[in-house]
Design a protein that fits this description.
The protein is mainly α. The chain has one helix spanning 2-71. It is rod-shaped, with a radius of gyration of 31 Å.
């Protein structure tokens, strides 16, 4: 009877270690994915900012040209 109790205790410890190892691995992967998402979004933001700046620049040029026509 005592041997069966020890065996169960060993099985529980082994299972706990495996679950802990898997959980630690998942947490590590979660942080990696978070970092990758932040980097991707940051890259997209930089690209969108460049497009925005180009469009604003073009609008300013058109506004200046329109003002020159109207005021002359």
């Amino acid at each position: 009877m005592e041997t069966r109790g020890k065996a169960k205790k060993v099985d529980v410890k082994k299972t706990f270690k495996e679950v802990h190892w898997c959980t630690t691995g998942l947490e590590s992967r979660q942080y990696q994915l978070k970092d990758q998402i932040v980097e991707a979004l940051s890259d997209n933001m930089d690209a969108m900012q460049e497009v925005f700046n180009i469009v604003v620049g073009e609008l300013i040029e058109k506004e200046d040209a329109l003002k020159a026509i109207v005021l002359d």
